Amino acid sequence: SQKITNEALIQALSEARVDGASAGLVFAPELSTFMGVDATKSGLIPTLTDLYDSPSDWSYRTRGRGVEELKNVTITILAASTKDWLRSSIPADAVGGGFTSRIIFICRERPSKPILFPELSPDIGQLKSNLIGDLNIIREMKGPILISHTARALAEEWYKRELYKTRDPKLEGYFARKHDTMFKVAMILSVSEGEDRVVTDRHIEKALFMLEENEYGLEGLVASVVANPIGGDTEKILDIIKRAGTIKHSELLRKCWRFASADVVSQMVKTLVESKEIKSELEKDNRTLIYTRI
Asked: Which pTM does this prediction carry?
């Protein structure tokens, strides 16, 4: 996907209408290319925020095409980025608000498997074929999805426990919508198993497990998006230490001299130590300072 204007996105959804519904999938190998630096001013972010809730009727007035009307909107975006580029893609003032609370961030520090030359094994080929077959069945499914009594009770119990937990203010939006996301994931799990269209307690449990597993590192990711220059550099230092596991002070300076002096690095390290992100200690020679992630 290349950069798109707000009007072009709306027009594409309007032209993609099938059976009275406007649906679309956006695949963006780099989010910043799709969004552009002026995504808020151009109206793209407000539009995506509006369309997330799948309105049954939605209209937008354009200069050249008059009023564009969308019905039963469904839009999905699958996009990739790095921490640094994510900061330029999403304005800091959008974090914690309506837009980022609707994003499911999947953050990994490193690739899960060091595979240089991926090969399509017979098992993976069969899995791909089965997946395509299942998706073709799912796309034809119609009708309401029901929730069992036990699943409803489980979801209500979880919701009451979670409602009053204290969160990072920047993550409040995500957790305020977590129950919506949970039900969406549970519905996907249900239709992936059969055509009865019933969400059970097992689907609720698995959906919550998947979301909680994915929340690891979410706070650090969001913090890096809104970081000021000093905070951003501190985040870089923390990332270096995390990747190394344990690192000597001199080695850390060699990796940081391009963006910070020795005094500034020491101040940032002090901040990380006092916030209990890392620990600092001397080696047996009582001279070499080392840092270790906690």
From this structure: 0.73
